[in-house]
Amino acid sequence: MKTFIQTQKTYAPEVYLPADSNRIVFVNFFDYTVPEYIKDKQEVTYRMSVKGFRDGLAAGFMPDPRVHFMVGDTLSRRKTVMSMQDSTFRDTIVNICQRFNANLLIALDSINIWIDEEQVIDEDNSTTSEYYLNSYNYVTLYSYEGEAIDRTIAKRSKFYKSRPAFFLGLLTFPPALSKAAADVAGLSEGAGRDYAGRFYPFAEMVNVSLYTGGPFIETNRMITAGNPVEAIEPLRELTRSSNRNIARKAAHNLSVVYEILENRRNTEKINSEFLSDGK
């Protein structure tokens, strides 16, 4: 038989903060009043998306006293994706960073919000439409010199609501995006927190399995008590057992011990390097 325990795996930051100063300014370059596909009633939803993302970034950086997060502009008018490709756009980044004395700029380049529909046939053959709300935030990180350091999509999705499916020919009636402002704000806030988290080490708990039974009672007790090193020699002895089944299981449990110890060393190394960088 097997039992399952957890071990922590730590990952290095996806993006590194500067060692000398962590003054970060946020700007929304997506002018949601321009695109024709965004109706007037939907502009509130997009505005709440920007606010949510901004608040998520602020909350994500707040626990770190070494970061000073600032808001430059939540609606920079008449910016388009094409204008961001122009060589003069670099000057725009530099000027904003100089104005706020910032060495990093987080730019919201574009936002895509939409509702997906999935139709489910119930046991009584009635059809239910299930709707999923999606919020994608396209983000670029710039240096104070106007260089693009990183581009990514900070995204969140959620089940929004369900309703009986009504048909008019081939048409369905999805919920109005204009009424989803509060939900979009929550999704974007989560996406903002996720984005801020990219600057820090990330840890997750993963399950690993141990063989149980008479020969492994004591070594498993050592491992689950947080003393895997003590289990190494006893498990090595068991790997030399004349009973091939016991030897095989001992080899597996020993590999788990080595995995736990490697995860510990990796966590200490990543955290030490992160702190020693002056952050």
Report on this structure:
By secondary structure, the protein is α/β, with parallel strands linked by helices. Helix content is 36%, strand content 30%. The chain is built from seven helices and seven strands; from the N terminus they run ββαβααβββαβααα. The two termini are 46 Å apart.
Instruction: Sketch the topology as an H/E string, one letter per element.
Output: EEHEHHEEEHEHHH
Please state roughly what percent of the residues sit in beta strands, choosing from under 5%, 5-15%, 15-25%, 25-35%, 35-45% or over 45%: 25-35%
Helix content: 25-40%
| Weakly predicted, low-confidence segments | none
Biggest sheet statistics: 5 strands, mixed
Structure summarized in a few sentences:
The chain is of the alpha/beta class and 279 residues long.
Descriptors:
single chain; 279 residues; alpha/beta; 5-stranded mixed β-sheet; two-stranded antiparallel sheet; 7 helices; 7 strands
